[in-house]
Amino acid sequence: MPAPILKYRLPSGRGAIEQPNAVSDGETLLAPVFWLAVAVTGVASGLFGALMMALLFNVEHLAFGYHSGSFLAGVEQASNVRRVVSLLLAGAFGGVAWYVLRRLTRGESSEVEDALWSGSGKLSFRRSLGTATISEIVIGMGVSLGREAAPKVLGGAAGSVVAGAARLTNGQRRLLVSCGAGAAFAAVYNVPIGGALFTAEILCGSITLATILPALACSALATLTARCYLPAHQVYGGIPEYHAGANIIVWALLIGPLVGLFAAGYIRVIGWAAHHRASGRALLVVPLIAFAIVGVLGIHYPQLFGNGSGIIRLAFVGSGGLGLLLVLLALKPLVTALCIGSGAAGGLFTPTLSIGALFGAAFGLIWSHLWAGAPLGAYAMVGAAAMIGASMQAPLAALVLVLELTRSGFELVVPMVAATVIATAIARYLDGYSIYSARLPSRPAA
């Protein structure tokens, strides 16, 4: 516990650290050198986030031949042949690139969660850079994975390098790597508070002052730095300010258990795909086949291309009929698991958020025939928060992320909290895994 500057203590004689979140720093001493490391890591995470997004956006434009507008609009205006060819090229390039990278960097780590939860927090910078670059290229070409994994691993790797240069302890290194990973996540989505909670609630599992202070500082610095390239507005703009009536509150209580059950099943599918993912020479063939399947499906359902941001935007503004919503709800989890099983590296945040938005919109549309009054987009936002909270096993981060991503939905907080708490509890007691713990690699045999 840092020694207080004011030496005179209050007459009560009670300790300052009796407040549970104000406990001592422990092995993560927040010394001046650590704060300097946080500042350097925050700036580096923001720069890496901007770099990865620049790569992603340029690949998207080149792959689908558009120059402005959303990714989904670009995919929709591309010909069927171009859609399939883009995924075939992604499979050919990604398979060979991952095969070569993993052979050259065998034994080196680029898995943030595994390095933090069961290791010293050390990450290989060259493997992290290679993995991130390949990931953003293939996602830009239409692969159904999230864009956040690449900046997240580079932010974590930056923290690892800075920790080594500053000769930090293992505890300080783990915290700095966590801050860097969460800060890069914050930078690419413009969610500084959500990124800090991602660091504290998921990567560290602790919302004490010793964790949340550096997490907030690092996320804010990274978000500000990334604005050298990325816009300062919210990711999903133009979302109406929905209001919560009795109909959507009752619906949230009923849908929470269903989202929890669906999330548990989805996590199991992702975990199975990750455990059985292609490796070795199979990487030269399996991604090509898997991505080709996504490309063929994308002829009729272009919403399946990419991380799912187009799906989220459509659902949040209340677009789409029941048939389309249900088809996408069935296909998006399957193609995402297929891409994971192919051996591809990528994130799951936005794909999972899109699945939750589809779930909420589809079942909200059905509910509106029984009790009308709430807009379809409101149901989608509640479903998205519940799904991402249950799938990440991080309800607080999920709620804040949805609010920051839209800068809307504050009137929906009560039904969002209700659905998220119930869904997360159901998923926790039913199985306990998250989309991050389910993907952890097998431990080597003793």
Name the shape in a single word. globular
Structural class: mainly alpha
Helix content percent band: 55-70%
**Helix and strand run:** HHHHHHHHHHHHHHHHH
Spans of at least 5 consecutive residues whose pLDDT stays below 50 are: none
Rounded mean pLDDT score: 94
Which strand-content bin applies to the residues?
under 5%
> Count of helical segments?
17
* Radius of gyration, CA atoms, in whole angstroms: 22 Å
Q: Could you give the distance between the termini?
A: 38 Å
Question: What does it look like?
Answer:
- The structure is a single chain.
- The chain has helices at 32-64, 71-77, 80-104, 112-118, 125-140, 149-165, 170-189, 192-204, 209-226, 246-275, 286-300, 309-316, 322-341, 349-368, 376-392, 395-406, 413-430.
- It is built from 17 helices and no strands.
- With 446 residues, the chain is mainly α.
- The mean pLDDT is 94.
- The protein is 66% helix and 0% strand.
- The longest helix has 33 residues, at 32-64.
How is this structure best summarized?
This protein is mostly helical and 446 residues long. 66% of the residues lie in helices and 0% in strands.
Strand and helix layout:
Layout: H1 32-64, H2 71-77, H3 80-104, H4 112-118, H5 125-140, H6 149-165, H7 170-189, H8 192-204, H9 209-226, H10 246-275, H11 286-300, H12 309-316, H13 322-341, H14 349-368, H15 376-392, H16 395-406, H17 413-430
Helix pairs in contact: 1-5, 1-6, 1-7, 1-9, 3-5, 3-11, 5-6, 6-7, 7-8, 7-9, 8-9, 8-16, 10-13, 10-14, 10-15, 10-17, 12-14, 12-15, 13-14, 14-15, 15-16, 15-17
Features:
446 residues, mainly alpha, 17 helices, globular
